[in-house]
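The protein record filed here:
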Amino acid sequence: MKQDTLKILFFGDITGRLGRNAVKSFLASKENDADFVIANIENASHGFGLTKKNYLDLSASGINCFTSGNHIWDKKDIYEYINESENLVRPINYPIGTPGRGSQIFELNGAKLAVINVLGRVFMPPMDSPWQIVVDEINNLKKQNVEHIFIDFHAEATAEKICFAKYLAKEFNNEENSLIKGFFGTHTHVQTADEQIINGMAYITDAGFCGAVDSVIGMEYSTSLKRLSTSLPERYEIAESDSAQINGVEVLIDRTKATHIRRINFNVSSKSEMEASFDSSG
């Protein structure tokens, strides 16, 4: 029997060990009553990419679907498991033949739910245009009787995110039925305060990130300062901190539309407690 109202959680870019442990601690808590959990993990392993070890560890924590972005290829063992990972999606607008898949269908309370991952092009590395690719994929999912679609748009420019979201909401949603239930921006690691419902679709320009509070979007201040102030090459290092922030959104949907979106934005203190309970790798 199909449930009338479903709660969907989406976590912004999980960054490093602190981000992984903070999200896992939240999912293990009594406060978590989500029906489906999506998380962006392109920075999950020491800030760049996703190792197989961390993928398996996060899979066991209660995350149902992993989205990614331009850093998905940074850990080379991704090629060993991405084709077999049924809950991991990479951006759909990589060229044909790229390993992995750009969308995935899940069964949820008697309904089909799909997640699409896509990269923006403004101020980003060269990439196939997402506009027609995503429209074609949504039409393909409709043919498979998918009822709920969620999109992680991994992009830099706010205007590109807003315009793309409104375009899709106008093309595929109406007052009677909204196929796209959620459109979440990622990549900048800075949560925006513009959560809203657009034509039955939950929207936020950027969901933020999960990682070290005392950092520059998850990276050490000193290395970030040197790189940004001198323009000289400097390797970013993942930040250490006594607390981690958790950023994301909580969305409620029914059979026809998204009815509610709320920002998740709070800190988890005591790094030692998180490390004792969970993962201590990079």
